[in-house]
Amino acid sequence: MDDKYFLKKAYEQAKKSYDEGGIPIGSVIVNNGEIIGAGHNQRIQKGSPILHGEMDAFENAGRVKASVYKNSVLYTTLSPCPMCSGTILLYGIKKVVIGENKNFLGSEELLKKNGVEVLVLDDKNCIFLMEKFIKEKPEIWNEDIGV
Q: What does the pLDDT look like over 35-72, one tens digit per residue?
């Protein structure tokens, strides 16, 4: 299993959100080759101001020791926003694999400045799904990114 495999799992979460009428961003947290937390953006579905894909993955991972997070990789379909990047830093995740940053460039520089390895895969499925959503529901997308 490699980065593309786990990004595909994050994409499946993004697609799930899209199919539910939500914002198509998905994430998985992987420790020692196993997914310990998977999630998708549920701001629309649950009326939450903070339930981004990465935050949902952390929530679903539950309470784990800091040492587990420090040895984990976070996969996300879209470049993480400042809130999600802050959570990544708080829990000491050392590597983040991003599906795409064409539709939104989050806080990648903040992650890098704090020693996080950032890998952007420019995945065409991630790019297409987000482009499609932004065209279909620009007002929801603008709300999600705080515009």
A: 999 999 999 999 998 999 999 999 999 999 989 999 99
Give the separation between CA 137 and CA 129, rounded to whole angstroms. 12
The DSSP annotation for 9-31 comes to HHHHHHHHHHHTTS---EEEEEE
**Span 79-107, pLDDT tens digits:** 999 999 999 999 999 999 999 999 999 99
Start-to-end CA distance of the chain, whole Å, equals 38
State residue 64 phi and psi, 5-degree precision.
-130, 160
Point out the residues that are catalytic: 54
Q: Which two tokens stand for residue 103?
A: 């539709």
